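Quick one: examine this chain and its backbone structure tokens and tell me how the chain folds. Here goes:
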Amino acid sequence: MTFIPNPGPFAAADLPIHDGRTYHLGLAPDELAQHVIICGDPGRVERIAELRFNSDTIRANLSRRGLRTITGTDVRYGIEVTVTTTGMGTPSLETTVGEICIARDIDFVTRTRHPVFRPLNIIRLGTSGLIRKETPVGTLVIGNYAIGLDNTGLWYDADEGSILRSIASSIDEKFSSAAKAKGETDPRIRSYVAAATPAVVDALVTAAANLRIDAKLGVMVAHPTFFASQGRNVLRTPVTVPDVDLLFEHFPAIYRTPVECFEMQSSAFYRIFGPAGEGHRVATICVGVSNRRTKEFEFSYGNGVDWAVEVVMSALSRLQSP
């Protein structure tokens, strides 16, 4: 799909900029690196900075609305990286990653789009729930595709192609049938399937292999909530579609890649900011902190995050700047 982005100028009501900084992150364009790591947890941003940045290389250390952004240079690979918080879920991601892209793409003085597009390398480092019995807790999952059960990505007219649209339609039918079989109201879910950037996925897979860190390539399912949409029937109000994890455990592979885990952001991340959308180079790597089949949940997953950070930094060092 070919589209012409709005060149601007953008009104203050559409693009609030205060003292040369974005409204939510408080980020100035010159504080943004070419390589970006996004994390849901603000504490993870601080952990990565403590582990990987020399204090004298940090040139942005921002805290606004509970969102943390730190830009520094990795001690091992010598690349400058911005690490920032996205918060939980796709709505928060649309806002925070949107501001990262705006800081890259918009002239804050003229409020117009730069004439030349300069793609960022953006990798999401998150946590996930595994849905296959044979995949042990602690496994790193690299997502080449993401199935979106949220509505956030659907507010953007990104065309992922007829094959992925067909897969999404089959998912919608499965949800409708599952609800009706239980005598529940049809949830009328409209899903979508989005792709990561192949070069970024390949860089993550290669980095993990070279570092001898176990990682699996898998399709991720991004949910709008932590409880009901992931099949956790623990609140008093009954869920519309029970056992959601079972629906996806046996879902056909997408281009020979099975569905491996549940998480809450990669669908909109890929659709809005990836190859079919903004055109930035994007992918996700998640630590599997639970397994729905074995009923495990691991709270002490810090080592897994550290391994994932090593993989991400190595992958980013392999991705050339445009």
Summary: Residues 162-181 form the longest helix (20 residues). The mean pLDDT is 92. The longest strand covers residues 281-291. The two ends are 22 Å apart (CA to CA).
